[in-house]
Amino acid sequence: MQELAPIVLFVYNRPWHLKQTLSSLKQNDSAQNSALYIFSDGSKSESDRKFVDEVREIINAVDGFKTVNIILRDKNLGLANSVISGVSKVIKKYVHVIVVEDDMIFSKSFLEYMNKILYFYQHDMKVFSVSGYNFPISIPSSYKNEIYFSQRASSWGWATWQNRWDKADWNVADFNNFITDRDAVRTFNMGGDDLTLMLKKQVEGKIDSWAVRWCYAHYKNKAYCAYPTKSFVMNIGTDKSGTHLKKTKKYNVKLGEFLKLQNLPESVFIDDQIIKNFQSFFKKNILQKIYNNLKRMISL
After folding, report:
1. How far is the CA of 62 from the CAs of 11, 12, 99, 119, 238, in angstroms?
2. pLDDT tens-digit profile of 186-212?
3. In CATH terms, is domain 7-297 a member of 3.30.750.24?
């Protein structure tokens, strides 16, 4: 078994959420044998400083891990730049990483699951990342594997390897060619109807998302994310406390129990029914599709 992947935790200004995240993470048996890196972003304004300071008091008292490494940012980088730079820094040393944020609750077997999947698919370059979260979609009772694959990467409790992470083009240099190619857009949107519009907003500077660019890296490399059939992660940032999510129950899940991991596909394959259910979760209605197409056409 390879060395346990380090945990990279990104925090900002949510002390209550952070306490829940750390508490559930420490309950994992593998926590005491895992290195923890915490990146604390700087405050945007004086109104944030109090909460950032509270967060830093909490992380300075963290124990229960093999080692705890704290990186305090003097300035506010924003989540996207913080994640890209932080993951890039740690992954160079360890080759693989598990990445979490300060608004997540984990099952007690989250770390064990993530490390086992990282080990199992370490040499399969078609598997670009591993998700600990599963969207609340229907899994057919006839499906016997414990994971499935999707083109869409997850940003809620995920992991990857250095030789995949290094393939991401964070500048999306070929966007102008991509956005004018209907077949390319259609293929990218197989991971969800919302992806192309999000990528367009990112390129135009209207949003600041590392995750949609990471999804694009999966598409460009014809690669996939491995998802568990039961979620090991629950997001508690859907209470309007986060940067991108409005208050919603759409993403609510129940934490799954430990999977035996005896039924893992030897290589990537796509289950048509699961992917159909996955895509339906992100399906836009006809008016939304027309609007998205018009937004895309403006770039032509």
Report:
1. 13, 16, 17, 27, 25
2. 999 999 999 999 999 999 999 999 999
3. no
